[in-house]
Amino acid sequence: MRGESMAGQLIKEWTAIQQFPSATQEKLLELLGQLKNKNVNTLTILVMGKGGVGKSSTVNSVIGERAVTVSAFQSETPRPVMVSRSRAGFTLNIIDTPGLVEGGYVSDQVLETIKSFLGRFLLNRTVDVLLYVDRLDAYRVDNLDKQVVKAITDSFGKEIWHKTMVVLTHAQLSPPDALSYEEFFSKRSESLLKCIRQGAGIGRKDIQKYAISVALVENSGRCTKNENDEKVLPSGTAWIPSLVNTITDVALNGKPGILVDKKLIEGPNANDRGKIYIPLILAFQYFFVIKPIQKWIKQDIIRESSPAWD
Prior knowledge:
Blueprint: E1 3-6, E2 9-13, H1 22-37, E3 42-49, H2 55-63, E4 81-87, E5 90-96, E6 101-102, E7 105-106, H3 108-121, E8 126-127, E9 129-135, H4 143-156, E10 164-169, H5 181-200, E11 213-216, H6 239-251, E12 258-259, H7 262-266, H8 278-305
Parallel strand pairs: 2-4, 3-5, 3-9, 9-10, 10-11
Antiparallel strand pairs: 1-2, 4-5, 6-7, 8-12
Helix pairs in contact: 1-6, 4-5
């Protein structure tokens, strides 16, 4: 198997694409062709979310091989892992990451580990798409979800949501409360998107500017297949090419990717904080402190130089 190196990361030939059913292969190669026609020869995808939601399994499903270890006794990868595969001059990088929640709280340490990893392997390159992964069968959205979104926003900037799509795993389920599958999916998607908008500080007037697509995923070996042997959702959609198609749309949506530079890795410089207010402070001091003092001094001089009888 041929291998190359990108900043110390091994890039292997994407031979596993040949393991997909022929119909899926054809669609994937067509999508890769679309990217290359737009002069996109490298696509870097960052996968983030809480633990145990199926991030690693989704990475393996897209690659078509067990590229990231998934264990029933370990819900997630303990550290970031980048899987790089090349095919006909195109390179796909997918970065799997640890869950962002530890002990019921968002872990700043995990976020710093992820940014440090990006700085090591992708310095001065871009993250082209963020896959924000959660489960379809999680019935509630709570304040912790908003905190996760806010932490991502604080770490990577609000612009990252321009390049984001939501991935809901465990899509092969029977909805509760006699809801239809489509209605359950719609309600679950909208509640999570609302949470993202609130956590990221996206106002109503900016909803269209931050339009976020939602894709369904079923990584289980029990996933239903169609006549072409493709894994399909309850709707009958072959989900792997559908997911990659949405990823391609996000990558080509005209918004810039997230540049991994020193500022992103290290965060705001503490010495720079408040510098924007320095001119205002100086103006305040001049007009409300220095000017009055100058006026009082002039008045004192005038009074002292005048005759006592004046």
